[in-house]
Specification:
6 helices, binds uracil, alpha/beta, 14 strands, 210 residues, globular
Length: 210
């Protein structure tokens, strides 16, 4: 993955995203669609994984056939909304290693503060896919990537459902080496930092909280 921003324009992704955006979509429908769209995004984000031929034996004969090569990739969920994307991706890549990063925004300094950090070992040898459905201001996403790099990660993709131009710019400035994969580049942020037109609060919509 080398382009800084990839928008996955596949019709199924766009169709499912449209239903997710609808405010009348229920929590259970939202979750189901998120799971389905995660599969499709995972397919896109893993398109350049290395494979190597191994010797196998079919019921008919021996052959060389490709299998994923190298260290298991690491999926890192940025809490809490990242978990919605994570679950679907894990169904497609069940052997992936998994990490979690929890950050909250200090109301006085407005800086992201870490409250949880647990990631797989040997991050320097893995493709690391950081997942968070919304790349909004980009501040917490950039902070999460800072922490992953400090832990050794050097091959990182940021996967989200929606991105704002502000968030993409923020990430590009701080981490030009991190490719962003998203289902949509939306128009802008509103004054509260919500993506417009967006889908509302992704965590609330997937977990049924308000
Ligand atoms: N986080 C969300 O859940 N929604 C937005 O629109 C922005 C950030």
């Amino acid at each position: 993955m080398n382009a800084h921003l990839t928008v996955v324009s596949h019709p199924l992704v766009q169709h499912k995203l449209t239903i997710m955006r609808e405010k009348s979509t229920s929590t259970s429908q939202f979750r189901q669609l998120l799971r389905e769209i995660s599969h499709l995004l995972a397919y896109e984000v893993t398109r350049n994984l290395a494979v190597a031929d191994i010797e196998i034996e079919t019921p008919i004969q021996k052959m060389k056939a490709p299998k994923l090569d190298g260290k298991k990739l690491a999926l890192v969920s940025i809490l809490r909304a990242g978990n919605g994307l994570l679950d679907g991706i894990l169904e497609l890549i069940p052997s992936a290693r998994v990490g979690f990063i929890g950050l909250y925004r200090d109301e006085e300094t407005l800086e992201p503060v870490e409250y949880y950090f647990k990631v797989p070992d040997q991050l320097d040898q893995r493709l690391v896919i950081a997942v968070d459905p919304m790349l909004a201001t980009g501040n917490s996403s950039v902070a999460a990537i800072d922490k992953l790099k400090k832990a050794g990660a050097n091959n990182i993709i940021f996967l989200c459902l929606l991105a704002s131009p502000e968030g993409v710019e923020c990430m590009k400035k701080a981490h030009p080496d991190v490719a962003i994969v998203t289902a949509s580049l939306d128009t802008k942020l509103n004054q509260k930092g919500y993506i417009i037109p967006g889908l509302g609060d992704a965590g609330d919509r997937m977990f049924g909280t308000k």
